[in-house]
Amino acid sequence: MKKTTCHLIFFVAVIVALLVGANVANAQNLIIANPADRGDARAGLVNPALAVWQDPIFTLGSKVLHYGVSEGGLDLRNSYFSLTTSNRSFGGFEALGYGLQGQILQTPLFNAVAMNAMLGKKIHEKIAVAVNVGFINRSFDRSQFNVEVEDDPLFNRLSKWVFPDVGLGVAAVPNRYVTLALSVAHLTQLDLSVDYKSARMPIGFNAGAVVGLGHFRALLGVARDENETLPSIAFESFRPELGLLRLGFGREAATFEGLVYVMRGVSLSYRYNYPVNELRLASSGSHELGLVFNFKRNRSLYEVEWLEPELTRKPVINPATAFVVESVFDTLYYVDKLIRRHIGAGIDSAALADLPQDLFFSTDSLEPELPKIGAKRLLNVIEATESAVKKFEIPTEREAIIYAMKKDHTPRYLEFLQKVVAQQKHDSEFRTRIVIPADGKRAYLLLKYLSLFGELTDQIEIAVRDSARVAIAGNLGGRRLPPSIFYRKILAPPDTFKFDLNLKDLRWGPEWWTFILEDANGKELLSTSGEKQILRRYIWDWKRPLDGEIPLPGTYYYYLRWKSGDGQVYTSPKKPLVVSRYNRHINIEISREKEFKPNPKARATIVVN
Question: Has this prediction a pTM greater than 0.85?
């Protein structure tokens, strides 16, 4: 066969393929779905933004195309799948939807494969946008051509890949009855030519609206594809527990569709399209079967919002619950701390003067409020700095480190440090603090010494004493230290009670009101009153007005009592307020002779050298 004849046959074959309505590279044109139909699992293939509004789904289907120019009943098929998810989070992004989709168009002359990935996001409570990016491959069957010139260069282009095929979509739900959508496809206008001349895919769009009312829906749409603008309309009746029936007309074909829920989360669908306009499209109808699996196990792909009952526009007025009071904090915790101090006879005034005064006179905590850091963390920080600056010159060998510590510390203190390291290994609840002067070199030497006897952890806390502050006090050893200190700490901020008008159309306003806090027996603990305008908020410092003391542990109740303009006295719902107390006993022992032994009964153990 001559080369020109081969070109002619090839050209005629492609024209025939176009006449049967199968766009050479884009099987997606054969999906007829309204881009705003959240109930259609295939709609995400037309409008990627719609998948953001649907449940996570997997759908699979196939459509048999009967065309007048085709002899085989199953020679023309369009198969598709879609796997999407929604309401996902990634990094700082919320309300994401994404998935994979694909289609295969099989004809006697060629096969076309389209694959794409979609990503969408809700940019507003009622609006979602999405983009899909994919590739297309079409491959002609060489066996369909009788050629004499086997090396004809034209047949080197029987298979072609085109990328990327980009589409955009937007879907909006302005209210629960209406969904609006718009999608644009083939923004990159891929070159689909099978010969040497350019043949670019035109940009297409789909617009649609779905209106629901009761058990019925109306679907309106318009699409422009292959330089034709075609409208569509459909009406649907459904039952949430059974399925749906739909009749429609669009794309020059009448459509019948039925869907049934076969089990929880699984549905089967059947669609029949029959051309009613141009005989060049088909001589008989096309049949389509589809399967949908909903990962949320819901029957429908979305909540049928318009079936929810409307709230009463003007609720029945109940003055007893018109005003409500809410507490920002519904629990008060306070701790009663009792510190007992035992100072050994061998501790003189000069030795006491060297101890941190916060340990004895703190009014905020049982422990000195000194700069502190975990031993492991502090050692890592110092070593990192030392490797670069070489600020501290301390020995590195084991024996040299021990010798340097013995020069400035007693044998008993060094033995105590070794026991501290041993204790942290055997007791996961062990916590202790070592107070040292504000000298980085001494701190580094101490940490290196501790590390000789085991790996350091942050269970050991290093507190740096503020030498200047202690020096100013100077005469701690000359003071009389009481044997015990009682201290109370509140672990909650002042409570705020908020007053709200529950019914906006209250007929009779208040003439007077009283806010009351009472115990379980009905005895008033706190009350405040006023006339006409009720407070918006009331701040309470957790103390009783009469004696300034914190209430005893227990459950209390607060509410509002008010008199309405109709002459009746009403009481708002009572709300609970819980007061809890914790007791904490700690012993502080200062001794030069006693060996270090943590007290298991103490809530905290403070070791000071």
Answer: no
